[in-house]
User: Which sequence fits this backbone?
C-alpha cells in the first residue's frame, strides 16, 4: 500500500498592479479553482515582483497548460504536499450575496436564506463561474433587473452554467448554453441538476455560436478578444428588440465594444472595480 502523500498543483504568476484584474480573469478562464493575490502588505509576501497571483488547479495537466499559456518567464508550477490543504482552501469559499436576491454557496456550507433569496449551489471546479469574479457578479445583477418570466435565453461561453442557472431561478423558462470546452458543458449540466433546473437547461459544445433560432435574451461573459471578432455571429443570435448582455470587459473597452455592435443601443452599464457589463437592445430593422 502506497504511503506517498498527494501533491496539489499551484501556478505562481509574477505581475504588476495594472495586470492584476486581467490576469486573475485569465487564470479562472484557464481552469483555476481559486486565485490568491500576494504583495508586500499580505501576511504571505510576494517574492516575484510587485505582486504574485497564486492559482490552484484540479490537476497537474491543467496547471501545466496554464504555465504554457502565460509563459514560463513569468509563471511557474509548485505543489502543496498532503491532504491538510483540502480542508484549508475551503475556508476561502463562503456563501456570497451577488445581488439583491441571488446568493451563491458551495455545497459544504450552510446558509439561512431570506424569504426572497434564491440560492445557487456552485462548487469551485473545472469551469469558470463561481460568482467570485466581478464579471459574473455584474451579469447576475443585470439579470435581477430584467423581467425574465417565461423567456428562453442563450448563454454563450457558459462555463459552470452559473448565469443560466441564475436566470432560470429568476423566472426564465429555458436556457440554451454553449462552450468550446466539453468539460465546461459537463460541469454546467451537473450544476443544473444539483440546482433542480436540469429539465430546463440545454448545453452544447461549439467553437462558435451555431443557432438558427434568435433569442430574446443573450448573455456572453467572455472577453473583448472574443466578443469583437465574433460580433457578427453573436449579434445574429439576438431577436429583434432583444437584450444582449456582454461582460468580461474592462471599463476602457466599452467604446470599442459598442462600435463592434452597431445594430444595438446601449441601455445600461454595471461596474465593479475596473470591470463592466454592458446591456444592449437590438434596434428594430428598417422597414
Assistant:
Amino acid at each position: 500500500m502506497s504511503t506517498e502523500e498527494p501533491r496539489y498543483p499551484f501556478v505562481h504568476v509574477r505581475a504588476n498592479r495594472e495586470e492584476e484584474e486581467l490576469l486573475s480573469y485569465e487564470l479562472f478562464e484557464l481552469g483555476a479553482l481559486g486565485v490568491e493575490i500576494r504583495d508586500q502588505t499580505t501576511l504571505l509576501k510576494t517574492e516575484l515582483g510587485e505582486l504574485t497571483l497564486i492559482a490552484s488547479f484540479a490537476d497537474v495537466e491543467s496547471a501545466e497548460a496554464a504555465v504554457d499559456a502565460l509563459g514560463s518567464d513569468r509563471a511557474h508550477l509548485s505543489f502543496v504536499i498532503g491532504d491538510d490543504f483540502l480542508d484549508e482552501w475551503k475556508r476561502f469559499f463562503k456563501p456570497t450575496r451577488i445581488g439583491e436576491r441571488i446568493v451563491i454557496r458551495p455545497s459544504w456550507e450552510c446558509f439561512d436564506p431570506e424569504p426572497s433569496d434564491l440560492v445557487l449551489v456552485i462548487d469551485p471546479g473545472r469551469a469558470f463561474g463561481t460568482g467570485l469574479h466581478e464579471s459574473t457578479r455584474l451579469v447576475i445583477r443585470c439579470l435581477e433587473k430584467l423581467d425574465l418570466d417565461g423567456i428562453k435565453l442563450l448563454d454563450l461561453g457558459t462555463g459552470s452554467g452559473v448565469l443560466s442557472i441564475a436566470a432560470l431561478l429568476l423566472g426564465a423558462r429555458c436556457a440554451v448554453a454553449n462552450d468550446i470546452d466539453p468539460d465546461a458543458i459537463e460541469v454546467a449540466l451537473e450544476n443544473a441538476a444539483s440546482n433542480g433546473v436540469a429539465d430546463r437547461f440545454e448545453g452544447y459544445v461549439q467553437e462558435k455560436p451555431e443557432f438558427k433560432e434568435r433569442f430574446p435574451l443573450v448573455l456572453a461573459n467572455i472577453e473583448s478578444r472574443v466578443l469583437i471578432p465574433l460580433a457578427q455571429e453573436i449579434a445574429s443570435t439576438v431577436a429583434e428588440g432583444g437584450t444582449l448582455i456582454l461582460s468580461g470587459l474592462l471599463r476602457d473597452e466599452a467604446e470599442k465594444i459598442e462600435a463592434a455592435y452597431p445594430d444595438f443601443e446601449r441601455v445600461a452599464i454595471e461596474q465593479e472595480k475596473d470591470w463592466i457589463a454592458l446591456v444592449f437592445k437590438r434596434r428594430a430593422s428598417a422597414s
